[in-house]
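Backbones bend. Our protein:
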Amino acid sequence: MALSLLADRLVPLGRGYPHRFALRPNTGRQTGLDLDGDGRLGGPGDAQGWGQFSGQAGMAVLSRLPVDTAAVRDFSGFLWADLPGALLPEAMGDEARRVQRLSTTAHWEVPLVLPDGGRLRLLAYHATPPVFDGPEDRNGRRNHDESAFWLRLLGSELDETPPQPPFVVIGDGNLDPADGDGRRDGIRALLGHPALQDPAPKGTSGRSEPGQKGDPAQDTALYPDIGGLRVDLVLPSADLKVTASGVLWPPEGDPLIPDLTAASRHFPVWVEVEVP
């Protein structure tokens, strides 16, 4: 319902996205275990991904191109413990290892049908924030591994066929490669993977972040206590020709700013590509 309402609002603006895709996410999906150790079952911290109800803060795709639903691959059931080199917390018990999925929200491969009958595959995900935990760094470890999943898939290290190009890794990695808290090796390796290209989209806000290392023009989200961070990614495969990119983050005073900030702390990221 919410996805359809959003799509309907875009049509009068000349931005029609008639094709919509979503699956049940891991957020709010209960594990049956007391994962957060509060002595109770069924709380938001006991779900596969933090959520007060099933589907809270899920993912969806709006597309101008048809979705090849029969060829969708949903990796959201992949167990964290099955990831090669997984950074599992030392205190994670055997029972939790047997049920805990890697994806906080989801990992999908969504093929879009191109006009010539070919496919452009979206490798979509939304990782957990690498904070809101304790010294065990559970969220920081999981955040790292959620990005590392694509590295393992592209490197043929999983019992899954690597995606056929052209494809685009797209979503919220929830970690800045230069600033903020978190284990940055995974996201940096993804940004620099030879099968991918990073267009490094930039906004036009004119902001400065004197205490940070990254380019504030590349920030995609603004946090009250942290400042701007680059956490949202669009990484086309190396065979695609990138013709333009950007972050829809205009300067203060622009008439778009009130609507953008009311909608989300994240700002839209866009990349134009030509398919060979």
